[in-house]
Amino acid sequence: MAAACAAASASLSPPQSTAQRPAAQGRIVFPCASAGSRSRSLRLRPAGRRSPAIRSMPRANKAVVAALADPLKVMIAGAPASGKGTQCELIKTKFGLVHISAGDLLRAEIAAGSENGKQAKEFMEKGQLVPDEIVVNMVKERLLQPDAQENGWLLDGYPRSYSQAMALENLEIRPDIVILLEVPDELLVERVVGRRLDPVTGKIYHLKYSPPENEEIASRLTQRFDDTEEKVKLRLETYYQNLQSLLSTYEDLIVKS
Which DSSP helix (H) or strand (E) runs through 41? Predict the structure, then answer.
């Protein structure tokens, strides 16, 4: 699976030059889980061009090819430490999307000591989902800001349950594609426990797979309060409890990697 994850990352490599804004045309390729399978792809074309293949595509066909007149709207889902952050950086760079992380929104509220932040922290420390009413308005307001509306968005870590998905559906907020990352549980636990944050730069390190460059950086690294083996197992349990009902909402839009 580690090799598969590496292949997925390679297939999403950003363009060689980042001096210019990403073009409105391109492709994301997501390898299938089984060896020898064809890759699944998302293709973008300039506004106004519609592919007959999309109009006639069977519902059961999991190969997703989207020709979009409007800005691209992407959701990415996966268990804690499944690699969403890495993939988001690659997709954001290639397609110029606005990256919106529900987790970052929540952690900003926690750091600010707001009432929403205090309530959210209580649930997160128990490995439970933060109640919808605390999160949905923050996400909605961010999605409706001008930069996300004009450039398209990449929603990371939300929705995480059927009720959250329905909240977005009721607001008529729906993605063009949902990317689901699949990683074995034992690897997820190892990734979480070894994960560290540089509070100065915001960069994420891993003590084993991506150690800090020097002792100065190593000395200031911090660990998220919920990045422990006990907490991540609780988070995984909650994630799997909600996964199937969540995926049923976006059945025709899912690409697995």
Answer: strand 40-44
